[in-house]
Design a protein that fits this description.
Elements (H helix, E strand, L loop, with lengths): L3 H12 L2 H16 L4 H13 L3 E5 L5 H14 L4 E5 L1 H5 L1 H4 L7 E3 L4 H13 L14 E5 L2 E4 L17
Parallel strand pairs: 1-2, 2-3
Antiparallel strand pairs: 3-4, 4-5
The structure holds cobalamin.
């Protein structure tokens, strides 16, 4: 006898079958290239409304093409905005992120302290007390046509010191 649990498992499996996965992947690839897709229009509208100084992209491997697309949209509207990529994929393959020239910095590993230091550096670098990006651990960037990786940052050992996000 097939139990109720087993039947629902079969249904779930069919819904997320490999065929369906590839159909959706094709749709995703088409959407990436389609300028008129509502998602890009929405992102353009939001960037135009907000005019950010810094944009952070959280990039898992399947999101690389859309992250690159967003980076291009941001720079076309706000050329001076800094674009930072973090997450699993940039942590493992930071060099690949710089195949998209719009990406300015990669944060490798945990982002809480690194992103704070980097954003502080962006603010300081508008004034006279300029910060050297080489002194920030756990980032990668391009300098004189070469990719620079600063030393790894140690993992946070006091997670309770982090504030809860609101
Ligand atoms: C929770 C989770 C999910 C949840 C997400 C819920 C949500 N709304 O957030 C759900 C179930 C929806 C999900 C779905 C998927 N997931 Co998932 N998921 C995870 C999991 C278990 C934890 C991620 C997490 O939130 N960690 C906590 C945060 C705080 O840590 P973090 O992500 O590492 O981010 C830190 C740094 O990377 C960095 N950082 C990250 N982003 C950024 C951005 C900036 C600007 C900066 C400065 C720093 C920074 O700072 C953060 C804090 O230190 C990871 C496994 C893992 N242990 O990490 C897999 C994982 C991320 N998932 C993965 C995958 C493949 C997927 C799916 C593609 C699966 C699928 N086939 O559908 C989908 C993608 C969905 C989507 N649209 O993006 C893979 C990614 C692999 C890769 N090479 O990229 C992982 C690593 C699991 C694995 N080992 O395979 N996932």
């Amino acid at each position: 006898m097939i139990s109720h649990k087993k039947i629902s498992y079969v249904h779930t499996f069919e819904r997320y079958s490999i065929v369906r996965y590839f159909q959706q992947f094709n749709q995703y690839q088409a959407a990436i290239k389609d300028d008129s897709h509502p998602i890009w229009q929405e992102i353009k509208a939001e960037i135009t409304r907000f005019i950010p100084d810094v944009v952070g992209l959280s990039v898992a491997t399947p999101k690389v093409p859309s992250a690159f697309r967003i980076a291009r949209i941001v720079k076309s509207i706000c050329p001076s905005a800094k674009i930072i990529a973090g997450g699993q994929h940039p942590t493992l393959l930071p060099e690949e992120m710089f195949t998209c020239p719009e990406i300015d910095f990669v944060i490798r590993g945990e982002g809480e302290e690194t992103a704070g230091e980097l954003i502080d550096a962006f603010s300081s670098n508008k004034g006279i007390n300029k910060v050297d990006y080489f002194s920030i651990q756990g980032i990668s960037f391009v300098r004189n046509g070469k990719i620079v990786h600063t030393p790894e940052r140690l993992l946070l050992n006091q997670l309770d010191s982090l504030a809860f996000s609101r």
